[in-house]
Amino acid sequence: MMGFARYPSLVGKVVLVTGGASGIGAEVVADFARQDSRVAFLDFDEAGGQRVARETGALFLRCDLRDIAALRAAIAEVAAQLGAVQVLVNNAARDDRHGMEDVEPDYWDERMATNLRHMFFCAQAVAPAMREAGAGSIINMGSVSWMNAQGGMPAYTTAKSAVRGLTRGLARDLGVDGIRVNEVVPGWVFTERQEALWATPDAVARTMEKQCLKRKVMPPDLARMVLWLAADDSAVVTAQSFVVDGGGV
Q1: Span 152-159, mean pLDDT?
Q2: pLDDT band (50, 70, 90) for residue 96
Q3: What is the CA radius of gyration of the chain?
Q4: Pairing relation of β-strands 241-244 and 14-18?
Q5: Is residue 1 part of a domain?
Q6: Structural domain count of the chain
Q7: Distances from the Cα of 240 to the Cα of 141, 171, 188, 201, angstroms
């Protein structure tokens, strides 16, 4: 974190990150740990979760976020071990490609469970303690995919477009209790998964042509926006969406 901000208000703060075993989520976990926050993260990737936990000292709980009972139990365990959650980062998602003609109702429902439903139930689970404290920050991870009218994954883009509505609705409902709710909207972030599956030279070149800034957006670029929204520096910022995409939208 040399050369980047440190936030005194994040020291000792209890932070929960979903999908923290890889990609953007792993970087968010690491950056909060460097801020001396008390960090926990949930993921169903046992090997990746254990690796990130070793590297960061964060508390890892294996959890399939599609299972709401397991999600609730995991959040209760985080509170028991670290204290009430003060910052929630709803990061977990999976942008698997799929054609419209191949989608059946069960797959559609599973995509909503993977990319949207858990965000609401995580927020629901942490809200009572935040209300009692009179403060809290919930940060939902969106996507520019639907803003760019991207095809090839209609269930994913539908779920991610709904994150905007969820964010603004919760911001209104929870603001009276001092709880802030915002959305971070990544562009194409070059995680290991993206590099392995879709970052062909032609695809990268097309992205650079659209972006104002001619460099790849990387996980730390997203993590730094998340840190600011979690910190007291953004104390009067809520119901907002922040696009981090190098100026591509």
Answers
A1: 97
A2: very high
A3: 17
A4: unpaired
A5: no
A6: 1
A7: 12, 9, 20, 34
**CA–CA separation, 227 and 234 (whole Å):** 10
> pLDDT tens, 191-229?
989 889 978 999 999 999 999 999 999 999 999 999 999
| CATH number of residue 61's parent domain | 3.40.50.720
Query: Would you place residue 167 in the very low, low, confident or very high pLDDT band (cuts 50, 70, 90)?
Result: very high
Decide if 210 is inside a domain. yes
Could you say which of 156, 188, 228, 242 is catalytic? 156
DSSP letters of 204-236? Answer: HHHHHHH-SS-S-B-HHHHHHHHHHHHSGGGTT
Give the domain extent around 132: 8-243
pLDDT in tens, 117-134: 999 999 999 999 999 999
Q: Please check the confidence at residue 163 and state whether its pLDDT lies above 60.
A: yes
Question: Residue holding tokens 């809200």?
Answer: 127
CA–CA distance, 93 with 87 (Å, rounded to integer): 18
Give the pair of three-digit tokens for residue 228: 């600011």
Q: Which tokens hold the place of 222?
A: 């997203």
User: Is 248 contained in some domain?
Assistant: no
Least Cα distance to 175 among 140, 139, 134, 207 occurs for: 134
Active site residue 107: no
Most distant pair of Cα atoms in the chain: their distance:
52
DSSP calls for 6-73: --GGGTT-EEEEESTTSHHHHHHHHHHHHTT-EEEEEES-HHHHHHHHHHH--EEEE--TT-HHHHHH
Q: Tell me if 215 is assigned to some domain.
A: yes
Determine the Cα–Cα distance for residues 155 and 105; give it in Å rounded to an integer. Answer: 11
Q: How far apart are CA 122 and CA 166, in angstroms?
A: 12
Pairing mode of beta strands 136-141, 59-62: unpaired
